[in-house]
Structure formats: structure tokens, C-alpha cells
Amino acid sequence: MEAKRFKLIQQFNEDSEKCNSKVNDLFKDIAVFVNGYTVPSAEELRSLMIKHGGCYHNYYKSGSTTHIIASNLPDSKLKLIENHKIVKPDWITDSIKANKVLNYTDYLLFSNQTNKQSSLKSLFQPNTDCKNVTSCIKDATQEGFLSDFYNNSRLHHISIMGTIFKDYINDIRNNKNHCLTGREELLKNSYNKLNNFPLFLMNEKKIIMHIDMDCFFVSVGLRNNSELRGQPVAVTHSTGNNVRNRNGAIVKSEIMAYRKKYENVNKTAVTTDGDKIKKHWSTNMNGMDSFAEIASCSYEARKAGIKNGMFVGQALKLCPELKFIPYDFEAYKEVSYTLYNTVLRYTLDIEAVSCDELYADCTELLSNVSMDPMEFASILRAEIKEKTGCPCSVGFGGNRLLARLATKKAKPNGQFYLKDDDVVELMFSLPVSELPGVGGSTHFKLKSMGIKTCGDLQNTSLSTLQEQLGKKLGETLHKNSFGKDDKPLTYTHVRKSVSADINYGIRFQNETERDNFLKQLAEEVSSRLTSVKMKGRSVTLKLMVRSKDAPEETAKYLGHGVCDQVSKGITLPSATSDSNIIYREVLKIMKNLNINCKDLRGIGIQLSRLESDIKEDNKLLKFLAGNKAKPNADRNNKPSSSKMLHEEVIETYEDLSLSQIDQSFLNALPDDIQKEIVSNIKRTKSLDLNTKECRTDEQNCNIERKDDKTTLRENIDVLNDNNVSDEMKTYISPSELRLLMKQWIETEESPESRDVSMVTQYLYHLILADHLEELLIIIKSFYRYIIRNRNTDNWREAYMKIINHTQLRIGEKYNSKLFIENLFDVS
């Protein structure tokens, strides 16, 4: 949808540039969105905006659309457009006639109220039923909590926007019709240059560009709050220290718990940096301070010591005049798309990092257009600023590390090219904290080793670093200290996991509330998997559990407070996106962990080991028709005994005589299982086993009985992970298998032995994974399908064959058997 919106804006801009009948720029800086039926029509209004220098939006864009044009609006829509300028279409036509932009207040749609539609103001009056704000805030037990949380979570929006743009780059790179219009413009301008090949590239192997928008959230927010430019500004949900009355003892207790945990985690800091603990936020907070977090702050605020992620209460102590603006996620998306589409005009070699940051390999581009990096940066930055209204910084270097370091030197709102000749001098004095991958813990370790700069790192042996930091990290930091970075740019995004996490509003009074929420979260993860057409084999439950020293009530209302992290996973027998299966597994993990539900403060579900989601009809084809015999196959070709045993897979004890059974093994089985085995062998003895057909991918062949005595144990052991069908393991979940079995029975007159074997294998893996509940459901479903559709001897015999083998496997693992009521008498 975002791509579609941006494409429509681009189309409007192109139409505006091609317009030969443009009259003036009367509506410059005005962007309208037409809602519903109007006179003139929406298409006519679009044409008028083109002719008079305005902008027309097919979809409303928060922070960008200046006026909504409408002749009538239902009450339901009024609640979604608080404090917006909703004017009649006459405002546009009358302004054109007057040759000036008239005062829009004279054309407000709701200036004259009717009985049918109340004023906008009345719709947004505070709810008098709510005695205080916090009583109206939802927690995880209330309906609609998940959607509200994700709609307002900045971390959620940041994470999904990063993924959106990685996928967006994939799509554009696969679009053969994409044109590098910006590069074409540069080529036209380069014709007059004397040199067709840039001299700087003769000494440079690679030119990597790094772009980072400056104070992104703040910059976007200031477009509609220009009066705050030059002042200390922060983006947050809070409006200051106007918090509810809180129990001061609880706040103090939580702050002390935070400090104690910080000291325990960073014990090294106490000895290497005595002031580190003293400067921690917990030493400066009290009961009336806001615990809302700052997502982004302006450079003026940073000069006062404010940082991203800091609590509002702590920030106000450093800068009392700090101003706050709210989030505008739609505007962030709009600007992000503009950023990426601007760079995509010049090159496709882009690695998306986040909504406001990217890398690009400009080696081929700059060579092609005969341009110096700094010259190109000036053009690109000016274009981004003009289109978005937001500044950015650009850095160039021979690899991604140097490009990133160059961007740091360029900030704010600048550009810098770190040439190879300057790398040695820069890196020697660079603080190690500037290197990627050096967080608080690693920094403390390096400091305790007497390493403060990259020069110190260079003078430390690789073996010493690997001993203290680990082999991989030690090697990486040693290379980085010399300005070396072998990691290439990644243009293709491959998803490794899909997850959903909640760390706010988790308050359960009983297990029923907990389980209901787990089910909702499982459905959310399932929905995300479906949207990206993926399935996962590994399910992980991640929990935040209240620390034993932390108070039950948190300083931040419904926040998570001081917590311990708990994580446990399980591997499924097959990949799935089924919400019921996901819920079943995480519920099982939750119960095994035996954590008091009242202590839960955060819950996350993650699926990894992802596989592509194959369409169901393809799975049915793999399951039912993938190994059909060729009609003209040579039926006289007989394989060797070892090959026959492999192809036979699980032709179970029905194919054996009593003399071939390992008596000691048989005696170890329960009496009822022994009787079933003997009974089945006697029953099947009359069958002509020598003509039994074995379906393979290559041919139809007869099975020969081995001359030597084969024990039951040997036959069973043939079934192992190497023999299990890839189709069954990879593509079919237990719930899907039930559907396929139904279709199998409905479409086949008689079951193929190969298909029976595949089902038996699948059930065996459910036993290995302790999924007995799902096993029973499949067996019961199979029985019902046979009764309703194919109640014939062949199908009943196939059913009993599967049951007998399954019971044998159950006996192996549990020294017992399943209680199965639904059995056929096939004697």
C-alpha cells in the first residue's frame, strides 16, 4: 500500500512536470485530499491543482496533506480526523477566481452545524466517565489491546519499516522496468566534462556510500512545527512530568532494583569507571518524574546532555525548556519512501538498514557519470532535502565501516569522504567505542585491558583479543581497528525469523487470562507468517518475568519494570504457520516453565528456521501423486535385496512369518500387543506377499523376500530420519495432513502402499516429538473419513496397518499403548 501511495504521488509530479497549460503557483505548499463526492469532481480538482502549482493526494497523509476537501462526511469518519482543515471544494474554485488563496476558515465544512452532524470539537471532548487517564488505558486482558499496542509502539513501527524497505529493495531490483532517471540526468550534464573517467577511482577499489537522516523523527515532526526549529525538541508519547499520583515508595523501590541489577550486570564498571554508576539515570529520578522514553531528540537537546532512549523525567532535569512533539508514523513512512526512491533513481545497489539509514555501492555509478563522490553527495542531499524537507548526512569510504565513520564526521547535515590515504591517521586515534559491535559490556572489557583507542587495539595481539572477547569478535575488532571490513553489502533480504513481542500492559490475574492472550499473540504471529508466505519449524517463547527484588506495581504505569529474561524453544516435526499449532506449543512451554502468571511483564513468540509456504494443491500433488508408477515400467526388473529393503521402508510385521520374529523382543512387549502381532501375521499369511508392488520414483518392481531371517527390530530400524519423505517433513503440518488425508480417501479407490508408508512415517515423527494429542486427532479423523467415504476392505486394512505400526512404536517409547476405540475387524 505504501508503495502504491508513493507511486501515485510520483505520477502526479510527473503529470505536473509535463503539463503545458500550467497557469501559476497559486497553491504552492498546499496539498489536498478529496474525500467522497464533490463538485467539481476529484479528477477536476486534481487537474486544477496541477495547473496552479498545488499537490493532490489520492490518500490522506498525516503531516503532509494540508487540507481535506469534502462536501459531506459521516460521523464515523469525523472521529478519525480531529483538528484537520476540512473545507468545501468552493475554496479552491473561488481562490482561483480571486487569483489568491482565500481564508479557508470561511469555507469550513462544519462552520454551520446541523442536527445530523455535530461539531468536531464535541466529538473529542474528554470522556467524563473516566475519572483519570490511566483507568482508560488498556492492558493485555482487554479486547483490542494488541492492535492498539502495535499502532502506537515506536519500536514496532521502526522494526517493520526496516523490514518493509528491505523487501522494497528486493522488489525494485526484480523490476525490469525500473529506470535510473537520476543517473540519466547526471549523464546528460557530464557530456561537457573533459574527462570521461574520474581520476579518483584509479586509486580507490570501492566507493561505499552511507546515508543517515539527521534526528529523523524530530526532523519530520518539525515540518509542521516550524516555530520549534532551533529549540531543544524531543519526540515522545509524553507531554512532560504531568504523571498520575504514584506511590513514592514503589517508585523508589523500583529505582533501587534497577540500580542493583545494573551494578550486577556491569560489575567491571565499578572498578574501571567509578563515575559510571553515579551517572546512571536511577540516581536522578523520583516519584513525580515521567518514565516515558524519548525516541529522538534534536541537536540542541543533545547539547544539553539528552540522549535517545532517555526517560522524560531525567531529560527535563538536564533541560527544563525541552519541548515535546508526538509521533507521526504515517509521515515517517512517507519520508522514508521518498528517501529510498530518490537514491533508487541513481543505483539499485542498495542495502536497506532502517527507515532512515542505508548503504549503497556507488563505484559503478560514479565511474559511469564521471563524478567525484562529494559532488554527487551535494546533488543527492539537495534533492532529498527538497523532496522531504528533512536534512541528511552522507559519508563515503572504501568499505561499509569507513563509510559509516565518514557519516559520523559529516553530521549534522553534512558530507564527508574518507579516502584510503587518510584511514591510518583517523583510525589510530579513534575511540574503540566508535566501532560497530562495541557496546557497554565489550567497552568495559577493553577498558580493563587498557584499550581505549583503535591504536591500542592495533598494538594488542590477535590471540589476546580472541582470548578475552571470543574468537569471532576479537578477529573482527582487530580488523576494524585498521579500517578493514570484509563484510559486503547485502542487496537481497532473506528473512530469518518472524515474531511478535509485547512488553507493556502485561498484567494477568489468572492462567485463563494468560492463555487467552497467548492465543491472540499466536494468531498475530500466524498472520505475519501468512503475509510473508513463510512457515517456521522452531517455536520460541520469550518472557520477561518480574525480578524478585522488584515491586509488583511499576513506576511506569503498566510498564514492565525490572525483569529477568527467560527464553525456551522447541523444534516441530514440520514447518507451520497454523496459529493453533503455535498456540499449543507455546502453551506447553509456558506450563513447563511453571512461572506465576502474575509475575509476567512481557511475552514474545518467535518462529525461526523459516521455509517458503507452498500452495496446498502442490502439497497434495507431492503427497498423493509424486511417486505414481509409470504405466509402461518394466515389471520384471528386480532390485538387490539391500535396495528392496530400503524401498520397502516400513513393510511391517504383516510381511513376516512367526519364525522371523525375534522372540526375545516379542516377549518384552505387553500381552495385548503380542496378541495383535501374532493375529495380524496369521491373517496376512494367506496373502500373496510375493506379488506386492512397491512404488518408486523410477519404476514398478516386485518385492523379493530376503532369504536370511530378518528380525522385527531390523525392519523397524529401517525407518529413520534419512528415509522420511522430504515432502512430509518440509511441507505438511498435522492440521494440513488431515485435510490431505480426506482428499486422498475421496479421490483414490484403493490406497497405494507408498502413500500408506508416508503417513506411517509422519505419525512416527509425531511420536518422537511427543505430539500424542495431534497423533490421536489424525487417527480419529482418518477413521471418520474412511467410514464416510471409502468403507472398503482395502482402506480398512490400510488403516489397521497404520494403527498396528503406530502402537508398536508407542510400545517402544512408552512401554504402553494408545487407547484407540475405533478399530476395524479385518480378519
3D structure, described in words:
By secondary structure, the protein is an alpha/beta fold. Among the domains are: 2-123, Rossmann fold; 422-492, DNA polymerase, domain 1 (Orthogonal Bundle), CATH 1.10.150; 497-613, Dna Ligase, domain 1 (2-Layer Sandwich), CATH 3.30.1490; 621-814, DNA repair protein Rev1, C-terminal domain (Methane Monooxygenase Hydroxylase, Chain G, domain 1), CATH 1.20.58. The longest helix is centred in the last third of the chain and has 22 residues, at 793-814. 32% of the residues are buried.
List keywords for this structure.
DNA polymerase, domain 1, Dna Ligase, domain 1, Rossmann fold, 18 strands, five-stranded mixed sheet, 12% strand, globular, 827 residues, alpha/beta
End-to-end C-alpha gap: 63 Å
What is the name of the CATH architecture of one domain? Up-down Bundle
The computed structural class is alpha/beta
- The number of helical runs is 35
The share of residues in helices is 40-55%
Whole-angstrom Rg: 34 Å
Strand content: 5-15%
Largest sheet: 5 strands, mixed
Please identify which CATH superfamily of one domain we are dealing with. Answer: DNA repair protein Rev1, C-terminal domain
Q: Report low-confidence residues grouped into runs of 5 or more.
A: 112-136, 268-278, 616-662, 682-731
CATH topology of one domain: Methane Monooxygenase Hydroxylase, Chain G, domain 1
Instruction: Compute the number of strand runs.
Output: 18
Strand order of the largest sheet: 9-10-5-11-12
If you average the pLDDT, what whole number results? 76
CATH class of one domain: Mainly Alpha
Shape: globular
